[in-house]
Amino acid sequence: MKKTLSVFVAATALAFSAAAYNPPVQGENLFYLAHPEMISGGISTAGGGILSVTPESTMINPALGALEKRITLDLGYTAMFNSVGSDKYGQAFGTGIIVPTDWANFTAEIEGVFVPFYNMHLGNSINFRTSASKRFMENLYIGIGLGFGGFWGNGTDWMLTADVGAVYNFGDIAFLKNFRVGASVNNVGKTFNNTNTIGVKSRAGGDWSGFPTFSTIRAGAAAEFVRAENFVLGLSLDVTTNFFQNIIFDSGLQMEIAHFLRINSSWQFNAREAGEGCNSWIPTVGVVFKFNIGTDFMKRDDWARSEICPSVAWKNVDGDINLISAGAVLRLGELDTEGPVIEIE
Questions:
Q1: Long-range pairs of 303-307 with CB within 8 A, sequence gap ≥ 24
Q2: 3-state secondary structure at position 20
Q3: Which of 60, 109, 181, 275 has the smallest CB count inside 10 Å?
Q4: Which ranges of the chain does DSSP label H, i.e. alpha helix?
Q5: End-to-end alpha carbon distance in the chain
Q6: How far is Cα 140 from Cα 285, in angstroms, rounded to an integer?
Q7: Would you say the pTM of this structure is higher than 0.90?
Q8: Please, which residues bridge with residue 241 across strands?
Q9: 213: pLDDT strictly greater than 80
């Protein structure tokens, strides 16, 4: 009897919490709107089908920073266009850095989001997140992160949260190349829960919940399915539960051609947004170009093949809203892919 009562109480509490779940449209993606590689590459806890780690991607899983071996900087800007309502334009920007060291890899990212739309009411916020990540054992990477931010325009609020994550790289398994799995728990702490934003459910004020959701749990896998001399095809799949009140599926498809051009496409299914008619069924599209650049002013031969990757992306949101994003990732130094040569005399 006691066990039955406990199950009933737990189910009732979960039902009530799910009913109260009502963040704004794209509120769960608040930290992933500023850079084209994030918009088009899929929100992947394992780093994407073709592994690409940027400072902003560590906001999904702080352990991803440990997979990057070079100093990495990113810069992105997203313009948002709305075809309905009086407010037609919103924007987001972000920039950050990954710094590898012998002890751990450190990441910092700052992002601003300014969206006044009635049908994607994210308001105005500035958010800063930092993380530390490290390789443990042979193929296990672990990271922790902290974030804080401020919100204004539709009420005033602040955020202070922690993240934790892990990535395990299995290497090549049968037809799966560079197969990775990842998991993370994000937004543990205080999120923006004292705002006047308009939620996805009723599209009216007064019935809303905090966003991004407290204790968001993510898990996913990624791998390359085709790896040839001048062509690579990769796929990532992720599932997210927002404190057991919603479920989100993310898929990403990446193609790299001639080590120069990468085509990204991704699709997200957000169960709550789909239920309210706010989930776009159109995949996102993006392209990334890869250029080697010289940095001879540093007087080091191994810096002569630094890499810059400009990119653009397009995403449709809720039918009436379109995002156009542009940015670049700069990786300094030449990637060391060979082990040390040991000679015995």
A1: 303/332, 303/333, 303/334, 304/334, 305/333, 305/334, 306/330, 306/331, 306/332, 306/333, 306/334, 307/331
A2: helix
A3: 275
A4: 2-20, 36-41, 271-275
A5: 78
A6: 31
A7: no
A8: 217, 247
A9: yes
CA-CA distance, 266 to 42, in Å (whole number)?
5
d(CA 140, CA 142): 7
- Pull the structure tokens for residue 112: 């601003």
Q: Is 160 exposed, middle or buried (0-12, 13-18, 19+ CB in 10 A)?
A: exposed
DSSP 275-322: HTT----SPEEEEEE-EEE--GGG--GGGTTEEEEEEEEEEEETTTEE
Instruction: Compute the distance between CA of residue 260 and CA of residue 263 in angstroms, rounded to an integer.
Output: 10
CA dist 54 and 95 (Å) reads: 10
pLDDT at 205 over 60: no
pLDDT in tens, 123-141: 999 999 999 999 998 899 9
Write the DSSP string, 74-107.
EEEEEEEEESSSS--EEEEEEEEEEEE-SS-EEE
Helix/strand/coil for 205: coil
Asked whether 167 and 46 are in contact (CB, 8 A), the reply is: yes
Q: In this predicted model, what pLDDT tens digit does every residue of 276-334 receive, in sequence order?
A: 989 999 999 999 999 988 655 445 555 557 899 999 999 999 889 999 999 999 999 86
Q: Which amino acid is at 122?
A: L
CA 27 – CA 117 distance, rounded (Å): 12
Question: E-assigned strands of 191-230?
Answer: 216-227
Measure the CA–CA gap between 106 and 301, rounded to whole angstroms. 25
Reading phi first (left if > 0) and then psi (alpha if -120 to 50, else beta), residue 273 is in alpha
pLDDT at 335: 61
Q: Any idea what DSSP says for residue 193?
A: -
Distance CA 80, CA 33 (A): 10
pLDDT of res. 171? 95
Q: How far is CA 229 from the centre of its chain?
A: 29
Tell me the helices (H) and strands (E) count for the chain, helix number first. Answer: 3, 15
